[in-house]
Write a structure and sequence with these properties.
This protein has a two-stranded antiparallel sheet with strand order 1-2. It is mainly alpha-helical and 178 residues long. Helices cover 60% and strands 3% of the residues.
């Protein structure tokens, strides 16, 4: 079987269940941003030498795949696929709480950057924020799993904390905005 089907040449694509929708549909925009976020997290994994970080980010990628399939299913379709559980938000919050205990308090904005890994985590954070905005736009038009925007909101916080954490582990100072 070939990777190309030519079915999308007319500007439409199929979502789970077989329904065809325009490629610029908000559902495709949102699931595309989830894919982009997962891809940039894959870059962080590829370039990081921190095994603890790589393991955590790999688990997040698995969750993002579940979110992508959830978003690629039309509202009301009774397709049997994994759905994002609200308990995944609790896992992210627990990670944030754990990491926050290891970091100094901040009273200023931090400029994105530092080590290469932290810089990529900041990029992932900004893509996560954009992903969240696309999902919220979709949720204004169609009923979605309510856990998805909450998870993405917490994930962007976690990516920020991970960037700070990696810089601290690598002894790279943070640049505060003054």
């Amino acid at each position: 079987m070939s990777i190309y089907t030519k079915n999308g040449d007319s500007g439409e694509t199929s979502i789970l269940g077989g329904k065809r929708i325009p490629k610029d549909d908000p559902r495709i925009e949102a699931s595309g941003k989830v894919d982009e976020l997962s891809s940039v997290i894959g870059l962080v994994i590829a370039f990081s030498d921190d095994e603890e970080l790589k393991k955590l980010l790999s688990e997040i990628q698995m969750t993002l795949f579940v979110i992508g399939s959830d978003l690629a299913t039309a509202s009301g379709d009774k397709i049997s696929i994994p759905r994002l559980s609200p308990s995944k938000v609790n896992i992210i919050e627990a990670e944030i709480d754990r990491i926050e205990k290891e970091l100094p308090k901040i009273d200023s904005f931090i400029l994105p950057g530092g080590s290469k890994t932290a810089s990529m985590l900041h990029l992932a954070r900004t893509i996560c924020r954009e992903t969240e905005r696309k999902v919220i736009s979709l949720a204004k038009k169609e009923k979605l799993n309510e856990a998805i925007p909450v998870y993405l909101n917490r994930l962007s916080d976690l990516l920020f904390m991970l960037a700070r954490w990696i810089n601290r582990k690598k002894k790279v100072p943070e640049t505060l905005w003054r």
